[in-house]
Amino acid sequence: MIDLLLVLVLLLSLVAVAWPFFFYPLILRLLPTRAEAPADGPLPSASLLFCAYNEAASMPDKLANLAMLKDRHPTLEILAFDDGSSDGTAGLIAAQGGGGFITLLQGPGRSGKAHGMKLLAARARGDVLIFTDANVLLDADAIDNLLARYADPDIGGVLGSLHYLGEGDSATAAVGSLYWRIEEKLKDEESRTGNVLGADGSIFSIRRSLYPEFPDSVLDDLTVSMAVVFAGKRLVKAKDVIARERLVTGRGDEYRRKVRIAARAWHTHSHLRPQLRRMAAIDRFKYASRKIVRWFGGLFILIGALAALVLALRLSILLAMLGVIAVTAFFRIGGRARSGPLATLMDILIAYAATLKGVVKAMRGRTVTIWNPAQSR
């Protein structure tokens, strides 16, 4: 009976780990398509917002990209917030933004992205607020394609598609690229069937009238985009709105980034919980499948590993010892590897560990409001 229970725990752990990436996509494909209502009319006005901290290396390309978008859309309002940069980022933005090209707001010190975005949103005047990151470049037709989706009055928010660059630079980059390709496909399916359950900061937009209030400790991307769903409007993804960003290549950078994001995501979940409970059943299912189950993936791996160890001990002490030796050797070799399958598997486990650590930190009351750009982009 105990052996059967251990096998069941092990199988359930494996299913839980695989759920967001295998079982959930299969279920989404079975759901019917929810069409958008075709409509004609003028494009809404728009404001593009981004926050920056010590992004001097990214600024020349970013500012050239914004200048190109401004040439294509003379009425596009562009606002930037500098979060106390010490590398001249604010000076670069101010120099390029002379004559009203970019409106620059500067904080007194480090106050965080969520705080900066709230200041920018309060200053913006466009009908649609477009959010992006300081190191992200948008394709020339991204604004046109994004605003065109707002012809449907039921659509309250539109996400773009993020294409990462530098997949072959390291095992960490390769794992990040694979993860994001899966994430993009999941969002495509969620959009086809109704609502995407949350945006990332690379490129997304909402109607300005839907912008919510929120504390600085949350993920503003997730909080702001979910306000669309809570308002009874559709949050959809546009494949032809393309943003490009370089992948993080260093394990340390990626680990710290995932811990920070996971901690803020859990605070966001706590902040949004009353509204999440009032969502439609299909949206609650999507949210749990793509977010909550994934956040605790590291815990499911630990539970499954413990069940496997106890089961091996009950079968044979030698078998258990061989398993422990094999796992120890993997971590020693995989920890030093920078390419190949062992390095890839190691980076996957590190990602799970970082996410679980961030969630546990947040559950213990720790908050993260500021960020540092990855040095290995």
What characteristics describe this protein?
alpha/beta; 8-stranded mixed β-sheet; 377 residues; globular; 12 helices
Outline the structure in words.
By secondary structure, the chain is α/β, with parallel strands linked by helices. It has one domain (1-377): Spore Coat Polysaccharide Biosynthesis Protein SpsA, Chain A, CATH 3.90.550. It has 12 helices and 8 strands. It has helices at 2-30, 59-72, 89-96, 113-123, 142-148, 171-192, 220-230, 251-276, 281-295, 297-315, 317-336, 340-363; strands at 46-52, 77-82, 103-106, 128-132, 137-138, 155-165, 203-207, 234-246. It has an 8-stranded mixed β-sheet, with helices on both faces. β2, α3 (89-96) and β3 (103-106) form a beta-alpha-beta unit. α6 (171-192) packs across α12 (340-363). The longest helix has 29 residues, at 2-30. It is globular. The chain starts with a helix and ends in a 14-residue tail after the last helix. The relative contact order is 0.14.
